[in-house]
Design goal:
The complex is a heterodimer of chains A (about 375) and B (about 130). By secondary structure, chain A is α+β, with helices and mostly antiparallel strands. Chain A has 15 helices and 8 strands. Chain A has one domain: Cytochrome-c3 Hydrogenase, chain B (Orthogonal Bundle). With about 130 residues, chain B is α/β, with parallel strands linked by helices. Classes of the chains: A alpha+beta (about 375), B alpha/beta (about 130).
C-alpha cells in the first residue's frame, strides 16, 4: 500500500470559512483525514471577559455568520438566565418567528452550496440564494438589518415589528411551501446527486453518540434529539411540530433532514404568527449598567440551525467572568475523519458539504 | 442540572460507570480559572432521559494535569486539545498535539486569568 498525502486548503469553497484538510490516500481511497482549524480564531471567549454584557452580542453574532440571529438569541438568553430576567410574551413569539426564519435562511444556503459543490447544480444554488434573500428581506423588515441584526435585548427585542409584518410573513411562508416541494423534486430526481449522496459518508447511530455530533447530523443517524422538543424554550411547546429523524446516517439523510426541517419551520412560523398576542415586546435599552446577576452560573442550550449550542457562563456584576461556547460545527467537523474513511477522494467534498459547517463557529 | 464534584483520581472510574448507566453522550469539556484553582467541567448527557450532569474536577494551578477520557468518549479528542492549549492542562495517557486554535508558542495559556493582554506576543511564525 502506497500512501499519498494531499493537502487541501487552507481555503476551500465548500466550507463557509477557512479550513485545511490533510488527506492520506491509498489510490483513490481515503485512509485518513486530519482537519486543521484555527484560521478564523478571534478569541471571542476571552474578549467576552473584558466587555459589558450587552457589548458582546456583536461578537457572538459573528461566530456563525450564516445564522447570526440564532447565536445572538442564544447568548442573550444565557445572560437573561444569569440575571434572572423574564422575556415578555409577545417578544417570545417574535423570537421564535425570527429564529425559524433564520433557520430557513441558513438551511437554504446549506442546501444550495451543497448542490453546487457536488455536481455543478448551479441552478439550485441560484434558486436557494434568491429565496434566502426574500427571507433576509423579511428579517430586515423585522429588525432593520439584513445580515447582522443585533436585535435581542434583555427581556425582549430592540424594536417591535411593523404592523403588516405578520401578513408578509404568512404570504412568504405560503410561497416557501411551494418552493420546498419544487426543490425536493428537482434535487432528488438528479442521478448525479443521488449517486454522490446515498450510502456515502455513513455515520451509524452508535458512532454518532460516541463522537457526540450535533443537530441535523445527529438526527440523520437515527437519534431523535432536538432541544426545541426535548427541552422546549419560549413558546415551542405550545405548537405542534415534529422532530425529523432519519436512520441511514449518510450524506443523503443529512441533506434530507434539513429539507424536512424547512417544512417544519414553515409550519411553526405560520402557527406562531397567527397566534401572536398584542402587547409590548421591547427589551431593556442598551445601557452600560445591567442588573446584578441572581445566578452565578447559567447554562443554556439552544437548537441552532447547525446543531445544539450550549453556553456556560460564570456571571460577575456587569460582565461575564467566563463564557464557554459549545460549537456544534466543531464537533461535527471532528467526526469527518470517521465518515470519510474508506470513501473515494471526490466524495470528501460531498461529505464536507453535507456537514454544512461554518468555520467562524468552530474557531471562535 | 446536577453538578457533581469528583476527585481527579476517581474521574475515569466515575465516567466509565456513568457511561454503563446510560450517560453515554459527552456534550462538552470546559474549564473556569478562579485564580486560586481551576475547575474542569465535564458535561455528560443521558439522551434517553434528556438529562445533563456536570462533573467538576478542581485542580491546583501548580498541579494542572488530568487523565485522558478519550478511551471512554471519543468526542473528548478536540475538547482535550482545546483544554490543553487554552488552560495549560496537561492531558496524560495519550499524545495530545499542543497547538490547536491559537498556534501561539511559549506564552501563558490564553484563557487563564494570568494571561495579560500585550501587543508584544507574536506567533511562532512571526519569530522565524
Amino acid at each position: 500500500m502506497t500512501i499519498t498525502r494531499i493537502n487541501i486548503g487552507p481555503v476551500h469553497p465548500s466550507t463557509h470559512g477557512v479550513i485545511r484538510l490533510v488527506v492520506d490516500l491509498d489510490g483513490d481511497t481515503i485512509v485518513k483525514v486530519e482537519p486543521h482549524v484555527g484560521f478564523l480564531h478571534r478569541g471571542v471567549e476571552k474578549l467576552a471577559e473584558t466587555r459589558m454584557y450587552m457589548q458582546i452580542p456583536p461578537y457572538t453574532e459573528k461566530l456563525d455568520y450564516v445564522a447570526p440571529l440564532a447565536y445572538d438569541e442564544a447568548y442573550v438568553a444565557t445572560v437573561e438566565a444569569a440575571l434572572g430576567i423574564e422575556v415578555k410574551e409577545r417578544a417570545q413569539y417574535l423570537r421564535v418567528i425570527e429564529l425559524e426564519l433564520q433557520r430557513i435562511a441558513s438551511h437554504l444556503l446549506g442546501i444550495g452550496t451543497l448542490c453546487n459543490d457536488i455536481g455543478q447544480m448551479f441552478t439550485t444554488f441560484m434558486w436557494a440564494f434568491k429565496d434566502r434573500d426574500m427571507v433576509l428581506d423579511l428579517l430586515q423588515e423585522a429588525t432593520g438589518s439584513r445580515m447582522f441584526h443585533v436585535n435581542m435585548r434583555l427581556g425582549g427585542l430592540h424594536s417591535d415589528v411593523p404592523p403588516d409584518f405578520v401578513d408578509h410573513t404568512i404570504s412568504l411562508m405560503d410561497y416557501m411551501e411551494k418552493r420546498i416541494v419544487h426543490y425536493e423534486k428537482y434535487i432528488e430526481k438528479n442521478t448525479t446527486f443521488k449517486e454522490r449522496m446515498v450510502g456515502v459518508g455513513v455515520l451509524t447511530k452508535e458512532k454518532a453518540i460516541e463522537l457526540g455530533v450535533a443537530g441535523p447530523v445527529l438526527r440523520a443517524s437515527g437519534i431523535n434529539y432536538d432541544v426545541r422538543k426535548n427541552r422546549p424554550y419560549y413558546v415551542y411547546d405550545k405548537f405542534h411540530f415534529n422532530t425529523k429523524t432519519l436512520y441511514d446516517g449518510d450524506n443523503f439523510s443529512r441533506y434530507k433532514v434539513r429539507m424536512l426541517e424547512l417544512k417544519e419551520s414553515v409550519r411553526i412560523i405560520k402557527a406562531v404568527a397567527r397566534a401572536m398576542p398584542d402587547g409590548d415586546a421591547l427589551g431593556m435599552p442598551i445601557k452600560l449598567r445591567s442588573p446584578n446577576p441572581v445566578n452565578r452560573i447559567a447554562v443554556v442550550s439552544r437548537e441552532l440551525p447547525r446543531g445544539e449550542c450550549l453556553l456556560y457562563m460564570v456571571a460577575d456584576p456587569q460582565k461575564p467572568y467566563r463564557l464557554s461556547i459549545r460549537s456544534p460545527n466543531m464537533i461535527n467537523l471532528a467526526a469527518i475523519s470517521h465518515m470519510a474513511k474508506g470513501a473515494r477522494f471526490a466524495d470528501l467534498f460531498a461529505i464536507l458539504g453535507s456537514l454544512d459547517i461554518v468555520m467562524g463557529c468552530i474557531d471562535r | 442540572m446536577v453538578k457533581l464534584k469528583v476527585d481527579r483520581d476517581a474521574l475515569l472510574g466515575t465516567i466509565s460507570k456513568m457511561k454503563s448507566e446510560g450517560w453515554e453522550f459527552l456534550v462538552k469539556i470546559t474549564a473556569v480559572d478562579y485564580k486560586d484553582h481551576v475547575d474542569v467541567l465535564y458535561i455528560i448527557r443521558d439522551l434517553a432521559k434528556s438529562k445533563d450532569e456536570i462533573l467538576e474536577v478542581t485542580l491546583q494551578p501548580t498541579d494542572l494535569w488530568l487523565p485522558t477520557i478519550f478511551n471512554i468518549h471519543q468526542s473528548a479528542d478536540w475538547y482535550e486539545r482545546e483544554l490543553s492549549e487554552m488552560f495549560g492542562v496537561e492531558i496524560k495517557g495519550r499524545l495530545v498535539p499542543r497547538l490547536f486554535l491559537e498556534k501561539w508558542d511559549g506564552i501563558d495559556p490564553p484563557l487563564r486569568k494570568s494571561f495579560v493582554w500585550d501587543s508584544t506576543y507574536r506567533t511562532s511564525d512571526d519569530k522565524q
